[in-house]
Amino acid sequence: MSLGFIKIMDSFEINKIIAAILLTALIVIGIGKFTDILFHVEKPEQSAYKVEGLASTTVSNTDVKEKVVEKVDIGQLLAMGDLAHGEKVFKKCSACHMVKSDGKNMIGPNLWGVIGRQAGSVSDYKYSKAMVAYGKEWAFENMNSYLIKPQAYIKGTKMAFAGLRKEKDRASVILFMNSKSSSPKPLP
Fold first, then answer.
1. Which pLDDT tens digit goes with each residue over 39-84?
2. Is 19 part of a structural domain of the chain?
3. SS3 of 78, please?
4. Which end of the chain has fewer CB atoms within 10 angstroms, the N or the C?
5. Is residue 1 part of a domain?
């Protein structure tokens, strides 16, 4: 009987400890809320420090699209690329894409033979409506523009990748993806 009393006592002690922790957390949160009310700080309407020569600008979606679809000499860009570097950078893509001839679709479609293939055309993969509507062939130029920032190039794509900002990274990945095909496209 005394052993059962000790077990009950232990559970009461644990409950007291948990209650003390919760009460402390509530008090700390309550003090924080109370001090926010007590010491209300109004933010100034104008900045106290102005930088000369800066003007506020708004960027529209067409500006972003024009920026993403920059005209580049794709031959010069691809000359910057390196196949081994492309394989290394493609590891970022391999979390969602496979690039094997008999590979399966993952979160994204299998990219085997993607250069030269029509966008949104892998039969056993469910593409976003935006990608199906895009429907162009993946050439070197538009793959480069897409890889800069996919969400800006094809508005509504479900590819949630931030993009590759460095030209060498994009060129290398494009070279790597082109090499992963039964019939790689000739370089421009």
1. 877 777 776 666 565 555 554 444 444 444 456 788 888 999 999 9
2. no
3. helix
4. N
5. no
**Is residue 101 one of the residues assigned to a domain?**
yes
Per-residue pLDDT tens over the stretch 141-158: 999 999 999 999 999 998
Q: What is the pTM of this model?
A: 0.61
Q: Is 119 exposed, middle or buried (0-12, 13-18, 19+ CB in 10 A)?
A: buried
Q: Which token pair is 78?
A: 């691809």
Q: Residue 42 carries which side chain, given as an amino acid letter?
A: E
What is the 3-class SS of 5-67, one letter each residue?
Answer: HHHHHHHHHHHHHHHHHHHHHHHHHHHHHHHHHHCCCCCCCCCCCCCCCCCCCCCCHHHHHHH
Tokens representing 13 are: 């002690």
Structural domain harbouring 68? 61-179
Residue 30 resides in a domain: no
